[in-house]
Amino acid sequence: MKYLHLLFALLLTQSIFAQSTLPIIKATSKKVAINDGGILDKNAWSLSPTARPDVYTAGRTRKTKWVTFYTDLDSIKVKVKPGTRFNFVILLNGKDSCYTQIASSFPPEDPLKRNLVTNDTIPFELTAANAIHVKAVINNSDTLNMHFDISSFDFHITKAAILKKKLLANQPDAMAGKAEPNYNKLAKVFKLQIGNMTWNNPPVSATSLAADNMDGRIGWTVFNDKIIELDYDKSLMIIHSQLPKSLKGYTKAKLGFTRYDPYINATFEIAGKQYTGGFIMDNGSAEAVILNGEWAASQNFPTNLKVIKTASIRDADGHKYETNTVIAPVLKLNGFALTNIPTIVLSSKIRVENTLNFFGNGALKRFNMILDLKNDYIYLKPNKLFEMKYKGDS
What we know:
The protein is mainly beta. It has helices at 2-17, 159-164, 172-175, 293-298, 361-364; strands at 24-27, 31-36, 39-46, 54-57, 65-70, 75-80, 85-92, 96-103, 120-123, 125-126, 132-138, 142-149, 155-158, 191-194, 197-200, 204-207, 216-219, 227-231, 236-240, 251-254, 256-258, 261-270, 273-282, 289-291, 307-314, 320-333, 336-345, 357-360, 367-372, 377-382. It has three domains: 21-103, no CATH class; 117-227, Cathepsin D, subunit A, domain 1 (Beta Barrel), CATH 2.40.70; 251-382, Cathepsin D, subunit A, domain 1. A hairpin with a 3-residue loop joins strand 7 (85-92) and strand 8. It is globular and about 65 Å long.
C-alpha cells in the first residue's frame, strides 16, 4: 500500500507539471520577495527544492490582480483570478529546480455544490475574556475547548493541549517530559467535529496563542464558502449556506481583506473632526479598540484625549514601548455610534506589516454579526450588550 501511495504522488506531480514547457526564472538565494496585489513583502518566501509543488496562496480577493515573485536575479509576474493556478520553476544556483505554484485563495467553483444547503446551529459561551467558546471533538474521542477567531485561519491547537491530548507523532520521550517536543510533527487528525459540521483531514497547527482557558482557536477560513451568524442575544453561532431572509435592524458594509485578515472601516468623531481607518476584526482579543501608531500619527489623531491607563510592551527585538489607553468619545461603525470607548494607542515606533487598526471583542461583542463569506459583506445590529460598560470602566 505504501508503494501505491508513492506512485500516486508521483503521478500527481507529473500531471501538475506535464504541460507545455514551464516558465523558468533564476536565483542564487532562497529568499524571495513577493508583491501581492500591490503589497510588497521583502521576506515573503523561502525556496524549497523538495516541494513539488511549493504552493503560494495569494491574498484573498474576488478581483483579478497581479502577483510578482522577485528573486535576487530575476522576477515573474502572474495574473491571478479566482480559481486559477499558475506553475513555474525557480532554478536555484543553476541546478536545483524549485517547482512553484501561485494559487488563488478561491478554489474553482464546483457546480455540484453551488446550491448545496448546509446549515448548522452551534451554541457558544461568551467567556470572561470575551472569547466565543465552542466545543470541538477531535478524532471521535477527545473534546477541545476552542474559540472562534475571525482574525485567525484553519484550526490551531495550543501546545499545552497537544501534550495533554497526546497529539504528538512518535515522540514518547517528549510525551514523558524527557525531550523537547517537535510541534511540527503532530499525530494525524483525521476528523474534527463542531456541532453537526465535520471536517475530514483538516489542516491543524500548533500555537502558543489562544484566549484564556482555551485549547485552541478556529479561523474564519474553515467557513470560507459559508455565511456565519453570531447571535449574542441567544448565544448561538449559526452557519448558513444562504443569506438569512430576515435582516431587520442590520446594516450592511463591504468586508475587506489584507492577505488573510478580514477588516471593516470605522470613523472616530472627535472635536468636530473625523478619522477614518480600517480595523481588523480580532475577536480573539478581549480589548475594545487598538490603534496602529503609524496610522494614528499619519491621521494626526488627537493626543489630548483622557488617558486611563499606561502600559509597556516589547517587540520581537526586545525594544520597550509605552502605550496609552485613552477614551475616544465617539466611534461610528456601520452607522452605529460606540461612545466613550477605551482605545489603546500603540507607539508609532512599533513596526507592523500594514497601517490597519484592530477591533477586539470588547467592542465587537456588542453587535450581532453576519459575515457573508460568499459575497464578502458584513451585517451588524446592536444587541443586549451594546450599552454594557467596558472592562475597566468605573
